[in-house]
Amino acid sequence: MAEMAGITRQTQQLFETGVRLPSYSYLAQLSHLGVDAAYLMTGERLLSERAHSEHLESIQERLTAQEERLQSALEAIREDQAHVAALSPITAYKLARSLLMCRKKEIVTNANPDAYL
């Protein structure tokens, strides 16, 4: 490897033992040889362009699915609002009061009341 990168074996050993730090030109040469220079310096592999692209596609798919769920929920809310608007004021008041009572009861009986805050 040392010869391929244009350095002596002794210099290579100094790099490997941490006595000396490799130069930018050495790391660039290794990179041209197909070595993951970032991994050598940090111990962490960088995503390849393909892996990065696939990761972004995965995120996009999840976001699209979430957007579709949110759109469906919004449509359901709008339908509910239309139904409530069509109720007489007294019936709407009774419905709202009933829902509020259910909500209070749910909070009291729930094991984790902080979930509703």
Structure description:
The chain is an all-alpha fold and 117 residues long. Helices cover 74% and strands 0% of the residues.
Which key features would you list for this structure?
single chain, 117 residues, mainly alpha, 74% helix
Mean pLDDT: 81
Which segments are poorly predicted (pLDDT under 50) over 5 or more consecutive residues?
A: none
The succession of helices and strands, N to C, reads: HHHHHH
- Give the CA-CA distance, first to last residue: 61 Å
Q: In percent, how much strand structure appears in the residues? A: under 5%
- Helix count, DSSP H or I runs of 4 or more residues: 6
**Major beta sheet summary:** none
Class based on secondary structure composition and strand pairing? mainly alpha
How many distinct beta strands?
A: 0
What is the total domain count?
2
Helix content: over 70%
- Work out the radius of gyration: 31 Å
Note the overall shape: rod-shaped
